[in-house]
Amino acid sequence: NKVLVLNGPNLNLLGTREPEIYGTTTLTQVEQRLHQCAEELGLQLECRQSNAEHQLIDDIHAAQQIGVDYIVINPGAFAHTSIALRDALAGVAIPFIEVHLSNIHAREPFRQHSYLADIAVGVICGLGVQGYELALHAAARQLTGQ
Ligand code: DQA
């Protein structure tokens, strides 16, 4: 089974970006850890990050072409703005889990709505970088019907 981990805008700055909110782990470290997990779980893993909405949409379309079975996505601020990202995920009909490092419900009001959440299988927020790992484990279990 193949899983795509997709990170949106500003997540390339993880580690140095507002560390009091997002922690000090870099995206490279997160992705390394996820590759270890994927190996243990017997999953093929692709990781992508982009600051551009159109690139994320293209990556979602490409996911369908290369047979991705599950997407773990941290859409960053596009969660709160992008109907296009929602439509892309709905369009490819690949099940996905939405991840946010911070607890978006405990922050500014404009972060409390996500255009993706109601079509996600599940949403994990507030658990920092661990959220990605939990999402990957959940995806693996769903894919193997456990
Ligand atoms: C975020 C939360 C978003 O509101 C914010 O715009 C981000 C990061 C998170 O992981 O907590 O860029 O998605």
UniProtKB/TrEMBL annotation:
EC assignment: 4.2.1.10
Amino-acid biosynthesis listed as a keyword: yes
Name listed for the protein in its UniProt record: 3-dehydroquinate dehydratase
Keywords: Amino-acid biosynthesis, Aromatic amino acid biosynthesis, Lyase
Active site, renumbered: Y22 (proton acceptor), H100 (proton donor)
Annotated GO MF terms: 3-dehydroquinate dehydratase activity
Taxonomic lineage: Bacteria, Pseudomonadati, Pseudomonadota, Gammaproteobacteria, Alteromonadales
Site (Transition state stabilizer) location in chain: R17
Enzyme class: lyase
One Pfam family, short name: DHquinase_II
Metabolic or biological pathway, per its Swiss-Prot or TrEMBL entry: Metabolic intermediate biosynthesis; chorismate biosynthesis; chorismate from D-erythrose 4-phosphate and phosphoenolpyruvate: step 3/7
Membrane-spanning intervals of the chain: none
Species per Swiss-Prot/TrEMBL record: Pseudidiomarina indica
A biological process term (GO) from this entry: chorismate biosynthetic process
Description of how the protein assembles with itself and partners: Homododecamer.
HAMAP family: AroQ (MF_00169)
Family assignment from sequence similarity: Belongs to the type-II 3-dehydroquinase family.
Binding positions for substrate per the UniProt entry: N74, H80, D87, L101, S102, R111
Physiological role: Catalyzes a trans-dehydration via an enolate intermediate.
Reaction equation(s) it catalyzes: 3-dehydroquinate = 3-dehydroshikimate + H2O
InterPro entries given in the database record: DHquinase_II (IPR001874), DHquinase_II_CS (IPR018509), DHquinase_II_sf (IPR036441)
